[in-house]
Amino acid sequence: MIKRIQKVIRKWQKEKEYQKKLAELRKRDPFNYKNF
Amino acid sequence: MTQLGISAFYHDSAACLVVDGQVIAAAEEERFTGIKHDDSFPINAIKYCLEEGRIKISDIKEVCWYEKPKKKEERAYKIFNKRFLRTLLLRLKARKRFKTENPFFLLKSIGYRGRVKFVDHHRSHTNFSYYTSPFKEAAILTVDGVGEWETVTISHAKGNNIKKLYSVNFPHSLGMLYSTITSFLGFKPNEGEYKVMGLSPYGDPSKYFGKLNKLFDISKGDLYLLQRYFTWEYSDQVMFNKRLCRLLELAPRLPEEPVTQDHMDLAAALQKIYEREFVYLVKKSKELTGTTNLCLGGGCAYNGVANALAYKYFDSVHVPFAPSDAGSAIGACLKTHTDIPPYLGPQYNDRQVYRSLQKYKRYINYYKLSPRKIIQKTAQLLSAQNIVGWVQGRMEFGARALGNRSILASPRHPMMRERLNQVIKKRESFRPFAPSVVEEKASKFFHLREPVPYMNMVVDAKSDALPSATHIDGSCRVQTVTREQNEKYYLLLQEMGRLCNIPVLLNTSFNLKDQTITLDPDQAIKRFLESKINFLVINNFLIKKKDYD
Asked: Residue B241, class by beta-carbon neighbours within 10 Å (0-12 exposed, 13-18 middle, 19+ buried)?
């Protein structure tokens, strides 16, 4: 049970990290690009 | 006929002047503005081309635009229509951009009222690649991010006729996939791709290869990329979404974060995936055309590691000196084969150099030597492990410094690479440097199938005699030099051979961190003073700093 909870927490932490990094990248102009 | 070729508004804006099929001048806008990969209307490059040709804008009979803006606009709106509400803001932005980037309006603003010919984006790549090649018949493969619709084309050329046989359309784009992972790894898209290529030999591709493979759905067609991982169709910001992070089980790297083994492994997997798809396209080119010659074009043709794999199916491979959008400015004008050297930019005579030297005389000592002496002296300095800035003749067109705007060093010392990376160029330590070698001695040091005059083929080194020019996997992005291509640089390499038995020099572009390649003597001296380059040679002037002991 504990292991399962730890797994869920890890997954949640990862998701938060992805979200945080993506938000940070979005703020940075050099990561804008053109396709039109 | 006098033609002006223009490429603008994507990346690497450039202009060229073509008179009766001969390219008189060409330059990228970034060299004049100092903004790397400047994509603005190339007003300074146009000005230079007109000055070089000693003509006025009214003397131009035809402007050749490297793509069809109307077709590109149609594509953008068609893609936006897939997600009407989500792309509302982007649609407004695009509308504004298409309005301000109208070629007719811009050309009118510089006084041009003549004919404008719009050439397909990939046709411009194809023309530049084939018409600068020595082949009378060839397959032409172009791969890039995206043009109007196309991202890949295969054509068959015979004489002056080029026929397109195959294409892949947006959003299925190998170039954009490479740029996406480049940005995932914390490098700027459309700029940092070569860093990813340099990083890839440090990694193990097996860790992420399977994951990256899941981005493709081969059951739906060639290069079919599943768009659920990307934002290309509805955003102009970060090129990927959270699903890609989940798939890779890796968070994107921010530029300031250290490069870890995971990042190296991802770079290695991306390079392997790119190579697999590239080889598939090369094979397809062979099957469709049946020729023995291949011309490569599009920004992806800068991937020298993959380019070398084309020899699996072709006897001879030609990669032009500026295969990306800059070269398309020339490609849009060409209709027949023409011999174009890569040295198409401005040059500066001794009087202009002298004027710059006078400006900085408080900080420098300089000597004017004879042409023979300057070569001998420079070779001596290089063989004594000095780093030399080398500015000669006309500036190169394209991303590579080919011996006219270069920082040179001896490749024999293993520490030279770190010294150049960390002290002079202040860039990532994993990035390799390219060696230049006299063509007739190239096979002694490298496994070459053909001469590589423009540094766009990565080959294996034969020995460990060139430690600072050899990458971690034993490969080199070599440049072969002949007397006909660049006499002064050739003689310098020969002199190096006479002094230390190795006619090879480490050649990197004359710029410091985040700068564009040096344009003129003023800029060269300024950069020389700002850096730890030991000596500077401009034309026949040998320059050293006053505080240098």
From this structure: middle
Q: Using CB atoms, which residue from A21, A24, A33 is nearest to B239?
A: A33
Nearest by CB to A36, from B76, B179, B188: name it: B76
Q: Write down the residue that tokens 């001879």 correspond to.
A: B316
pLDDT, tens digit, 9 for 90 and up, residues A1-36: 889 999 999 999 999 999 999 998 888 766 566 666
Coil, strand or helix at B130: helix
pLDDT in tens, B140-158: 999 999 999 999 999 999 9
Q: Which residues contact B97 (CB under 8 A, 6 or more apart)?
A: A36, B9
Report the pLDDT value the prediction gives residue B548, as an integer from 0 to 100: 56
Among A2-11, B57-66, B309-318, the range scoring the smallest mean pLDDT is A2-11
Any A CB within 8 A of B189 CB: yes
On whether the CB atoms of residues B455 and B478 are closer than 8 A, the answer is yes
pLDDT tens-place string over residues B234-280: 988 889 999 999 999 999 999 999 999 999 999 999 999 999 999 99
Q: Within a 10 A sphere around the Cβ of B133, how many other Cβ atoms?
A: 21
Main-chain dihedrals φ then ψ at residue B23, nearest 5 degrees: -80, 115
Region B383-404 average pLDDT: 96
Q: Cα–Cα distance between B265 and B262 in angstroms, integer? A: 5
Residue B163, Cβ density class (10 Å: 0-12 exposed, 13-18 middle, ≥19 buried):
exposed
Largest CA distance in chain B: 69
Write out the two tokens for B168.
Answer: 């892949």
Gyration radius of chain B over CA positions: 23
- ipTM for the predicted complex comes to 0.88
pLDDT higher for B136 or A30?
A: B136
Q: Which of B543, B539, B548, B461 is nearest to B506 (CA)?
A: B461
Distance in angstroms (rounded) separating the CA atoms of residues B389 and B406: 6
**Residues of chain B found within 8 Å of residue A13, distances taken between Cβ atoms:** none
From residue B274, how far is each of B352, B431, B513, B535 by CA, in Å? Answer: 46, 19, 28, 40
A-B C-beta contacts closer than 8 Å:
64
The answer, for A12 touching chain B at a CB cutoff of 8 Å, is no
Task: Decide if B8 touches A, using CB distance below 8 A.
Answer: no
Provide the pLDDT for residue A32. Answer: 65
User: Looking at the complex, does the CB of residue B11 fall below 8 Å from at least one CB of chain A?
Assistant: yes
Nearest CA in chain A to B73: A36
The pLDDT value given to residue B22: 94
B174 and chain A in contact, CB less than 8 A: no
Query: Is A22 in the B-facing interface, judged by CB distances under 8 Å?
Result: yes
Domains and CATH numbers, chain B: 2-118 (3.30.420), 133-319 (3.30.420.40), 350-545 (3.90.870.20)
pTM: 0.94
CB within 8 Å: B145 and A35: yes
Phi-psi region of A19 (alpha: psi -120 to 50; beta: other; left: phi over 0): alpha
Q: Which residues contact B389 (CB under 8 A, 6 or more apart)?
A: B406, B407, B408, B510, B518, B524, B527, B528, B533, B535, B536, B537
Q: How far apart are CA B479 and CA B78, in angstroms?
A: 43
Q: Where are the alpha helices (DSSP H) in B23-85?
A: 30-33, 43-52, 69-80
